[in-house]
Amino acid sequence: MTEGGAIPDDGIVGVLRTVEAQSTTGVLRFQGPQGEAGEVALLRGQIAADQPEGDSGVDPVEVLLALRGGRYALEQRLLPLPVSRGDHRMRSGSLVVHVPADLMNYCERAGLTGLLTLEQDGRRAEIVYARGDLEGIRLDGLDQLHQVFSWESGKFRVEAHAQVPSLDVALDDADDADPFDEADTTEFQRPARKAPRGETTTGTHFLRVVEMELAEILREREERRPATKTSPPLPPLGAVRAPESYRPPDAAADAAALRREREPTVKVVFLAKGAPDAPVPDVVAPPPPETSPRPQARRPPRDPVAEALDEELPDVAPEAPAPAPAVPAAEGHAKQAPTALWALVALLVCVLALALLAALPALDG
Hints:
The chain is of the alpha+beta class. The chain is 22% helix and 24% strand. The protein has eight helices and 16 strands. The strands form three sheets. The chain has a nine-stranded mixed beta sheet. Strands 1-5-2-3-4 form a five-stranded antiparallel beta sheet. A two-stranded antiparallel sheet has the order 12-13. It is rod-shaped, with a radius of gyration of 48 Å.
């Protein structure tokens, strides 16, 4: 983070008030009209008590305060972080060594304007800071924020930025790319489909944005801290000079009044990778049934999705009633013989009855 400009004709005091409001930790380099040069160390926007001595052995703060004209450059620098690699603009390391909660404390302690990135097993959290204040959080592959605070493995990276990073940019889509090697980001494109209420979508990302209480985030951060792990202790921050020693007491607006009021809530963006909804296929009729000697009733068309989930059962013809068992011929003759015999007996009885009637004498009147 580097910015600068001209030193006003009435001196650098007004610039120092702005620097204090920005809570910058780093150095303020200066170049005077008569060749005066040097740099002043800053801690959380205030002039550090210990200053590097120049070649002349003169306090650089006194030289800076005496300037009327010239130019200055303000550079944000990260504080030392044990067991990490990088420089004063970027530090990276392992979450096996540093607890996420302690890394967040480190960023707040340094008055960071920039980004803290945490990654584990393809899941990623980007925590945005503005002047040491938690500005917003973006999560990729996570459903709950508190999951991040309990991580005990993975990577981290702390970056100092000239401007507060924006949450309205998309993460890299490449699954095989190392997100810690990706410096650039791309803006979201217009959604390809209508998003559900309360959500914003793109062709490759689905977003859910919520507002969380800052106090709740800080409480969760400490409660989810791994109980069996502590980060290496940070070096002492160092002392600062009282503002009254380098600016008049009756200076116009106090630097603290220039700082924005802290918002009680923090924006949290949940980002999940995926493809947009596939178009619903048209409903088509199934192919006609194969020719069969038995007529088949025509079935109404079915939804292809239903066809895939519930396969049609084959048609089954109703069972015909079983025919009566055939009677063997011999058995039929055996059943017909008694019937003919009884008929013969009945005929014989009738003949005998008629014969008896004929033999009776006639009845005279």
